[in-house]
Design brief:
mainly beta, single chain, 23 strands, ten-stranded antiparallel beta sheet, 342 residues
């Protein structure tokens, strides 16, 4: 590996192979043996107490990176090479033809780093960022929020990739934030923790970048055939449907020909604790709108206070109203000709 210093910090650059490079930065030369994990994070009620979800009582059990290979690198002046790949080392950056890494800056609580690509690439990744595909224009949280609705983060992964031929994986369990709001200016990354440990993945195609990720972390499990069919997570056991007009934000038409909007109960047992614009009260139950469409809503059956007179709770088998049930969803899939698992 190649070692160097900047801002009184210690850095080292190494390679798994010509398309997988590793950059580490620390305040001392006592390099950590394991990734950083949060010590005592502040948590919302009922978050799981595991490393993956940012819980308390954490301990290191298994690595993110499973690759143990280390290829030889050579340094000639300010250029570091491994096979056909050469990285130019400057005072404040590492430069390749398709990507520039501004060297990480250590802060009192963590670190930041900017990664710049030519042109205006598209960005993808970050784990389960619900409802998000392209990350362009977004500020992405790499932290489990235990939210399974639109824009919530439920299974974050500190990895993203770009259409300009690179990906980046942070070897850390700490919370982070990736800013893709201005793709032309690159990506601004930040993570908690004392040390920087990131892998730069190079490849000409999305497939090659994802395979590079697999080289570092291991191949994904091959799921059974029945798992490749329609599925719903955390559904049909909580929410309510309220009759609304067709023009209402988030209105959905059901088999009875009427329009309904989905609401969620404010309930600590469902991790839903905060006020949301458009909150209503039905029969003493506080409900907040599902994040899809929080604009103007008109109820078809309002009471004197303008609140809806009824709300239908969804169920598995249609105990209250069959059309708001998991069984009805299965019927719709079958009617539409979608394959169903056994």
């Amino acid at each position: 590996m190649v070692t160097f210093q900047y801002h009184d910090w210690f850095a080292r650059l190494s390679a798994v192979n010509a398309h997988l490079w590793r950059l580490q930065v620390s305040r001392t030369q006592d390099w950590p043996k394991t990734p950083d994990i949060p010590v005592d994070p502040k948590l919302a009620n009922q978050h799981d107490a595991t490393v993956a979800t940012g819980g308390r009582g954490q301990h290191y059990a298994a690595p993110i990176i499973t690759a143990t290979d280390q290829a030889a690198v050579t340094r000639t002046g300010n250029q570091v090479s491994c096979g056909p790949t050469t990285i130019t080392l400057a005072t404040d950056r590492l430069t390749l033809p398709n990507v520039t890494l501004r060297l990480p800056q250590l802060t009192a609580t963590g670190w930041t780093m900017r990664v710049i690509s030519p042109d205006s690439p598209a960005y993808f990744g970050g784990g389960t960022q619900n409802g998000r595909v392209s990350l362009n224009g977004l500020l992405v949280q790499i932290a489990n929020e235990n939210r399974w609705t639109q824009d919530g983060v439920s299974s974050p992964v500190p990895f993203y990739w770009s259409t300009t031929g690179y990906g980046l994986l942070a070897n850390t369990f700490t919370p982070g934030e990736y800013d893709f709001s201005n793709p032309a200016s690159g990506v601004m990354l930040s993570h908690d923790g004392e040390n920087v440990d990131v892998y730069l993945l190079l490849g000409d195609t999305p497939a090659s970048l994802l395979h590079g990720y697999h080289e570092l972390t291991g191949l994904p499990n091959l799921n059974p055939t029945f798992s490749y069919y329609p599925a719903h997570f955390n559904a049909y056991n909580r929410d309510y449907w309220v009759p609304v007009t067709p023009a209402s934000a988030g209105a959905i038409r059901f088999e009875d020909g009427r329009w309904y909007k989905e609401y969620q109960p404010l309930n600590p047992q469902t991790f839903n604790l905060g006020y949301r614009p458009g909150a209503i009260t039905v029969a003493g139950q506080s409900l907040v709108p599902n994040v899809y469409g929080n604009g103007n809503v008109t109820f078809t059956e309002p009471d004197a206070a303008g609140m809806p007179r009824r709300a239908l709770r969804e169920t598995l088998n249609g105990e209250h109203d069959r059309q708001f049930s998991a069984r009805a969803v299965i019927d719709r899939y079958a009617k539409a000709g979608l394959p169903l698992a056994g």
